[in-house]
Structure to design on (211 residues):
């Protein structure tokens, strides 16, 4: 079941988000919870696109909760809105009891860039980091990759995704040199939207390993 809800941030800003619950959801139980950051302009339509194509079906089948926020006031989650995510997660943790006291983190395209930003800012909140695709957005982010060496990082990029492949290869090399746990898969015959990962089975296989 997917529904949309809102919370009011301390600043007064309204944050809208989608929540996907397992088929047999029991509010007394703890669940693995995925924070899924959407692509493109990170609008409600993009949240729904990500859920429909990658996250919702498999999450429900495997007993996961998915949270996917809409960029507040159109401000992307790597252009200032990343600052609201720790408050959002602290608030939802009181309601949903994330397994192990941490969240799993994933993002698609702009959501992947956003996922790197929030992981770099607050790595202690997360079990892992998954992007399809994504990379550190600027040199300042890139220079902070040492803060991610304790997080398993999985990156997917289509081989025809010009520009993204090179930046993700550089990210993989940097994390490896720092002793990180990182894997990059360059997916054959795919572009920016990686169709072969649709449905999310392989994505949740990675996430399940880090529960």
């Amino acid at each position: 079941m997917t529904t949309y809800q809102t919370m009011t941030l301390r600043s007064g800003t309204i944050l809208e988000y989608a929540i996907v619950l397992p088929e047999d959801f029991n509010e007394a139980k703890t669940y693995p919870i995925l924070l899924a950051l959407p692509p493109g302009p990170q609008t409600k339509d993009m949240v729904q696109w990500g859920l429909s194509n990658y996250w919702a079906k498999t999450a429900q089948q495997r007993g996961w909760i998915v949270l996917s926020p809409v960029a507040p006031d159109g401000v992307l989650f790597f252009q200032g809105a990343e600052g609201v995510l720790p408050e959002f997660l602290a608030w939802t943790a009181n309601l949903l009891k994330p397994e192990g006291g941490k969240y799993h983190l994933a993002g698609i395209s702009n959501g992947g860039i956003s996922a790197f930003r929030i992981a770099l800012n607050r790595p202690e909140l997360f079990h892992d980091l998954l992007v399809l695709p994504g990379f550190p957005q600027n040199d300042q982010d890139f220079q902070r990759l040492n803060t991610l060496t304790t997080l398993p990082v999985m990156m997917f990029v289509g081989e025809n995704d010009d520009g993204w492949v090179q930046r993700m290869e550089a990210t993989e090399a940097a994390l490896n040199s720092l002793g990180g746990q990182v894997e990059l898969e360059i997916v054959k015959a795919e572009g920016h939207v990686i169709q072969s990962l649709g449905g999310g089975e392989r994505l949740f296989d990675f996430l399940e390993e880090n529960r």
Summary: The radius of gyration is 16 Å. The beta strands are 2-8, 14-20, 33-37, 65-69, 103-107, 126-131, 152-158, 181-187. The mean pLDDT is 97. Helices lie at 44-62, 85-96, 110-121, 139-142, 164-177, 201-209.
